[in-house]
Amino acid sequence: MNIASARQAVSGASIRISRLEKRFGAVSAVDGVDIDIAAGEFIALLGPSGSGKTTILMSVAGFEFPTSGSIHVDSEDLTYVPSNKRNLGMVFQNYTLFPHMSILDNVAFPLKMRGLEKAERHARAEAALETVRLGGYGKRRPNELSGGQQQRVALARAIVYRPRVLLMDEPLSALDKNLREDMQLEIKRLHAELGITVIFVTHDQSEALTMADRIAVLKDGRIQQIGPARELYERPANLFTAGFIGEMNFVDVTVERATDAVAVRLPWGETWSLPASAVVEPVRAGESAVLAVRPERLQFGAGTAPVVKVTLSDIVYAGSALLLIGRLADGTEMRARIAGASDVGHLAPGDIASFSVPMEALLLYRGRD
Amino acid sequence: MKPPADKGSLALGACVYAVLAFIIVPLVIVIPMSFGQNDYLAFPPSGFTLKWYAEYFDSRQWRAATWLSLQVAFLTAICASVIGTAATYAMVRGRSRLVTLFQVLLIGPIIVPHIAIAVGLYLFFQTIGLSGTIPGFVLAHTVLTLPFVVFTMAAALGKVDANLEAAAMSCGATRFAAFRYVTLPLILPSLASGALFAFIISFDEPVVSFFLSGVRQKTLPRRMFEDIEQNLTPIIPAIATLLIVLSIAILLGAHALRSRSKTP
To answer: Which of A13, A368, B18, B220 gives 20 to 30 Å between its CA and that of B241?
Structure first.
């Protein structure tokens, strides 16, 4: 048995989560979630704690049974199938290696449960350990390995029986930053090598953005937006996603005109006409709305585009970027991120700086209630 | 330079040594008495003989009582550790709202006076014909020893990550296989130590045995009380000495098991 043949044998399964609901008493942990995951796709469930992302994963894993809705893997209905019959790989947050078993026995455990002969399961476990670059570690005990190594063993154990889906519940949150970045690449590499479908739960947006093909942003048990990283970042579908993913400036405005070109009145009295592309959510004249713009889209200095004047309070030099923090005339906080090499030596806190706002960078949402 | 000893710590030291003395002195008295040549209990004993030990081992009555007690203690240890572990597992891992009620019921036998349990069981067992039988003794002693197993297992299970079983099940293990291959090996040292406690408690349990013992089926403690009432020869300190040695051996065994469980 070698790794090359193992690779060929494995390919991902498609997953369909339909109208999934999970209530704990009066609380809805998951409230009508639909996700279609293509075979071999890497999808991240991203959200703050209590958003329902872990409950969705546990429902797919079979540790929670939904109140209603269904889960299909390759058109097989798994909604109420017990976890041990699902043949899905799972990696938990805290490694969950069996402390009384050697590394090799840990990795071979799923094969033992499937009734394989000892010689074969050890050979395949060793191959899986090599896949996660831990060949030769089989004789050690879990407590003799570092956190990162333990999580790689857990990964090997999850893929050793070649499941077609790999579920990961915040697998990197217990690791320190450098190790986390190594493991992100490791998991990406494995995903590419094995062609396995991955559902990855995280509360770390940069992790989700860098790793996943698509990201589902969750809040209060509902999907706020689902899409590839670029779409989520450049065109957040609502105010929550806009504020949750990356940094965003928000300015409260009033809608002057909603037909033809939308026009909004800014707090200091100016009226801007927005391009149609800026309107993310439909608005009506007279209503309040929120104008959003990423800090790195603001351009230092007055130009042809509309200009905002910001009274600076902090100037933070961070190598590659320079962060300028200040307030608009009405007190709204504004952040601008410009190239670190920009010549702004004359600026000091208290100064008023002008920034041009490119029209195509603006996003308009319905007002906050 | 040593710091001056203050009166408080001196008093504390005195108390500690007094407590230790009260624990150890009875042992120091009983052991020499078992070797005394007098036909009655005397301290300090005169002479040295092993005849009381010989008498104990030669007597069919004593041997029968010891054998009964060993059987009862062995079966009690098994019943209490199996039931206690299962019950504790349900208590620690269960989501039922009845958990608190179960907890109180399981620990109850420690709080309820043994005499109350004994009288109750006596009347009940008389009616259903379990009095003076091995199953009767085992049932009664299982009730008495359960709390000790439950305490030991609650501590042990609390230390085992519940996610380990979830991980095992995600590897394809059934619920039972997850327990059998993951949780059980991890709690086994504590389980064995709980079983040893159950054994030793059952082995020298006098109160319930007093009520449940029949004319022929007498446990060792029951037989000893009978001998104390009728003869009071140094055979009692001889048996007591043997029990002390057995208890110490079991406690050392339990300790070794528990310290092994701390270093996986």
So the answer is: B18
pLDDT digits (tens, 9 = 90+) for A146-157: 988 999 999 999
Task: Decide if A3-239 and A247-366 have a common fold.
Answer: no
Taking CA atoms, B2 is separated from B5, B9, B13, in Å, by: 8, 14, 17
Give residues with Cβ within 8 angstroms of B256, minimum separation 6. none
Q: At the topology level of CATH, where does B59-262 sit? A: MetI-like fold (1.10.3720)
Q: Which CATH class is domain A247-366?
A: mainly beta
Q: Write out residues 99-138 of A within 8 Å (CB-CB) of B.
A: 99-100, 109-110, 112-114
CA pair distance B176, B183, nearest whole angstrom:
10
Which residue from B161, B172, B186 is facing A113, i.e. has the nearest CB?
B172
pLDDT of residue A7: 44
Question: Is B188 near chain A, with CB under 8 Å?
Answer: no
Structure confidence by residue, pLDDT tens digits, A309-354: 999 999 998 888 889 999 998 889 999 999 888 777 788 888 999 9
Q: What is the pLDDT of residues A113-140, one digit of tens each?
A: 999 999 999 999 999 999 888 988 999 9
Find the CB nearest B161 among A63, A96, A154. Answer: A96
**Dist CA B220 CA B69 (whole Å):** 6
Domain ranges of chain A: 3-239, 247-366
In CATH, which of 1.20.1510.10, 3.10.105.10, 3.40.50.300, 2.160.10.10 is domain A3-239? 3.40.50.300
Q: What is the mean pLDDT of chain A?
A: 90
Q: What is the DSSP string of A157-206?
A: HHHTT--SEEEEESTTTTS-HHHHHHHHHHHHHHHHHH--EEEEEES-HH
Domain ranges of chain B: 59-262
Lowest mean pLDDT among A141-145, A340-344, B118-122: A340-344
